[in-house]
Amino acid sequence: MTSGMVYAEVPIHDSLHEYVRELNKVYLSESALFEMDNDIYGFEWIDGDNSEQNVLSFLRRAKRWERNTGSSKYVTKRIRGLPTRSPKEGTYKEILSSNLEAYDGTGKHNPWEIESENIGCHRREQSIVVYVPPLSATAFKIL
């Protein structure tokens, strides 16, 4: 590698640039991701101690009860059906996945809408079952 090499010419840098661009778009369009940053009610752990599967999941809130859920996976093993608490009954949609092929991921994610189920999980009555790709971050929102 020469010192004069432009980093944008390296394909992995292009995909990272596109991911950050999409991350910024999602952040600006979803008020639950920023509106209550300085409020104790703006963030809640769904599952912050899942050391067996190495998954963190959390809930972000906006003032008008808009909610987003997010999860991050930190090991190389995928989880095909991870149940996670949903804050309320309804239909959920994946709004961001770092595992898309455009970002040099495998392309496996949750492209379909997910209906919450009346099955208790993480001390709540409703839950959704999601695919969690390895080494990834995923965000969902209720429609």
Helix-strand layout with pairing:
Layout: H1 11-29, E1 43-50, E2 55-61, E3 67-73, E4 79-85, E5 91-97, E6 114-115, E7 127-132, E8 136-142
Antiparallel strand pairs: 1-2, 2-3, 3-8, 4-7, 5-6, 5-8
Structure description:
By secondary structure, this protein is mostly beta strands. It has a single domain (7-142), classed as Golgi alpha-mannosidase II (Immunoglobulin-like, Sandwich), CATH 2.60.40.1180. The protein is 13% helix and 36% strand. The protein is built from 1 helix and 8 strands; from the N terminus they run αββββββββ. It has one helix at residues 11-29; strands at residues 43-50, 55-61, 67-73, 79-85, 91-97, 114-115, 127-132, 136-142. The strands form 2 sheets. The protein has a 6-stranded antiparallel β-sheet with strand order 1-2-3-8-5-6. Strands 4-7 form a two-stranded antiparallel sheet. Strand 2 and strand 3 (67-73) form a beta hairpin. The longest helix has 19 residues, at 11-29. The N and C termini lie far apart (47 Å).
